[in-house]
């Protein structure tokens, strides 16, 4: 089983968030027991912004057994189409946002996505299986 992970779950754990950290850490342990854990370059970039250096970020992400998985052409195109649907429905973002790239990556390169932002992904990536660490 391949699980892609969203930035919010990683930041919960790496930042020791008192509200979401324990549930996110537990979910990470569970998905790692079930298979591979990966994230696209967008997630790596978002998480890296919380560290003093690229080396520190890379060390922390490797410690979590997170694999780097670049977007494929198909995922990038799917992100653009999802963004187009969002704009058609009145969405205000004028550039392809990180969440569209993360969702498209998970949909095309993983079996599921571990995220706390389930509403957004369920709206624009209906075929994507979502795991929310805060849901029972």
Structure explained in plain terms:
The protein is built from 7 helices and 5 strands; from the N terminus they run E-H-H-E-H-H-E-H-H-E-H-E. The chain is an alpha/beta fold and 136 residues long. The chain has a single domain (2-131), classed as 5'-nuclease (Rossmann fold, 3-Layer(aba) Sandwich). It has a 5-stranded parallel β-sheet. Helix 1 (7-14) crosses helix 2 and helix 5 packs across helix 6 (98-109). The radius of gyration is 14 Å and the shape is globular. The model has no long low-confidence stretch (mean pLDDT 93).
How many structural domains are formed by the residues?
A: 1
Strand order of the largest sheet: 3-2-1-4-5
Q: Unreliable stretches, pLDDT < 50, 5 or more residues?
A: none
Please work out how many helical segments DSSP would assign: 7
In this structure, how is the largest beta sheet organized?
A: 5 strands, parallel
Number of strands: 5
CATH top level? Alpha Beta
Structural class: alpha/beta
Fraction in beta strands: 5-15%
Percentage of helical residues?
55-70%
């Amino acid at each position: 089983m391949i699980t892609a992970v969203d930035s919010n779950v990683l930041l919960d754990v790496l930042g020791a968030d008192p509200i979401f950290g324990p549930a996110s850490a537990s979910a990470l342990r569970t998905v790692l027991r079930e298979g591979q854990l990966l994230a696209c370059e967008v997630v790596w970039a978002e998480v890296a912004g919380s560290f003093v250096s690229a080396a520190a970020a890379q060390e922390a992400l490797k410690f979590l057994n997170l694999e780097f998985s670049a977007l494929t052409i198909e995922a990038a195109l799917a992100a653009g189409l999802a963004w187009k649907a969002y704009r058609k429905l009145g969405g205000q973002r004028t550039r392809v946002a990180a969440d569209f790239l993360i969702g498209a990556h998970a949909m095309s390169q993983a079996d599921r996505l571990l995220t706390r932002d389930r509403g957004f992904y369920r709206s624009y990536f209906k075929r994507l299986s979502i795991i929310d660490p805060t849901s029972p």
